[in-house]
Write a sequence for this structure.
């Protein structure tokens, strides 16, 4: 039996601490191949670069301006669906199928609130995410310096989520709500997490994939009551989406343009690219960003905790979504899981050390029996 090492940053040994040499060597090979797969992001088409020139905001943030226009129209007394249809036609956006219309939740709330209050709510939500993850992370990382690094990585994943110019963007709110829900969920204590996730789905219906994943995990864990609770949240979303589809049908005609579809088939590299774009990794060279995303996912796999398993399953689900159905202009889907992905880099040192040592270590604990 290989002799386990004391953890570096984590409070307990990583998932790879007790691997035997053959499995550890296979793990190192798989990690190398996975990092090479992450580098495929260098060859995947992405969104056009942002000029960061205020004069070009109409091109750089066309979708944000669309949502701001809709909010202004609703604030002025217009019907949400009529206002949205007019704005989509004016911007040459598709109006069919009905999912091209965002759910009215965020626009209606922002139309009823002053802009400064909306920004304060966004900052409060971001602060709540940091606080909730601090509580969870201090159980896994007890030493102050590594814990501080983990929190910095969390903030690095949220840099796009506190920009005042993006308050009208649905994925900003939904991504923070998913991150908060994930941190709040505990065995036997899931109601608050489910309520937060319901709000996320009502803001952006693609957050339903997160709920499907955690529902599946509850089923696997034998948590029937929790699984039923998550199923109820999906039922609420289904009812809202049905009503939404009916309302959209009242303002859309057969002559309105349809979406070209969402089967992009850009591969796993596109998911890696979206994570790089949506986080502070956007400041690093593309090759380094891609590798760090890979190490972040490896780090999540290293942490031996049910929360890590759920987080990794959520990342995997959205990676499949973006790999198969994402297009260069829908890179913002990655915002739904971007806030927490870089935290995995705080778990990676233990995982890399343990995997490497297990593959190279020849020390053994020998058990002998003496007979007197």
């Amino acid at each position: 039996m290989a002799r386990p090492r004391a953890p570096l940053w984590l409070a307990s040994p990583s998932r790879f601490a007790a691997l035997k040499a053959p499995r550890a060597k296979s793990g190192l090979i798989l990690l190398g191949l996975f990092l090479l797969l992450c580098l495929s992001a260098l060859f995947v088409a992405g969104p056009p670069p942002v000029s960061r020139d205020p004069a070009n905001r109409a091109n750089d943030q066309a979708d944000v301006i669309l949502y701001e226009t809709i909010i202004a129209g609703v604030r002025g007394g217009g019907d949400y669906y009529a206002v949205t249809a007019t704005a989509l036609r004016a911007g040459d956006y598709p109006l069919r199928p009905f999912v091209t219309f965002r759910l009215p939740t965020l626009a209606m709330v922002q139309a009823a609130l002053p802009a400064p209050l909306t920004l304060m709510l966004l900052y409060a939500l971001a602060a709540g995410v940091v606080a909730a993850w601090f509580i969870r992370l201090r159980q896994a990382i007890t030493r102050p310096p590594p814990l501080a690094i983990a929190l910095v990585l969390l903030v690095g994943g949220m840099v796009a989520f506190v920009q005042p110019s993006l308050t009208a963007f649905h994925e900003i709110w939904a991504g923070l709500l998913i991150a908060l829900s994930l941190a709040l969920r505990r065995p036997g204590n899931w109601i608050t997490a489910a309520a937060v996730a319901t709000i996320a789905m009502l803001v952006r219906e693609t957050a339903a994939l997160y709920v499907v994943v955690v529902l599946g995990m509850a089923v696997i864990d034998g948590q029937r009551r929790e699984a039923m609770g998550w199923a109820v949240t999906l039922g609420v979303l289904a009812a809202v989406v049905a009503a939404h589809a009916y309302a959209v049908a009242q303002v859309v005609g057969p002559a309105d343009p349809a979406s070209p579809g969402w089967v992009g088939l850009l591969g796993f590299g596109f998911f890696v690219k979206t994570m790089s774009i949506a986080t502070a990794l956007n400041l690093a060279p593309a090759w380094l960003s891609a590798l760090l995303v890979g190490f972040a996912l490896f780090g999540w796999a290293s942490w031996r905790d049910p929360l890590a398993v759920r987080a990794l399953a959520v990342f995997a689900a959205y990676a499949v979504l973006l790999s198969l159905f994402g297009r260069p202009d829908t890179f913002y889907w990655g915002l739904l899981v971007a806030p927490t992905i870089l935290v995995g880099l705080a778990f990676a040192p233990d995982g890399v050390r343990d995997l490497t040592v297990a593959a190279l270590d020849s020390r053994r604990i020998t058990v002998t029996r003496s007979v007197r």
In short: The mean pLDDT is 92. Residues 35 and 163 are 31 Å apart (CA to CA). The longest helix spans residues 115-140.
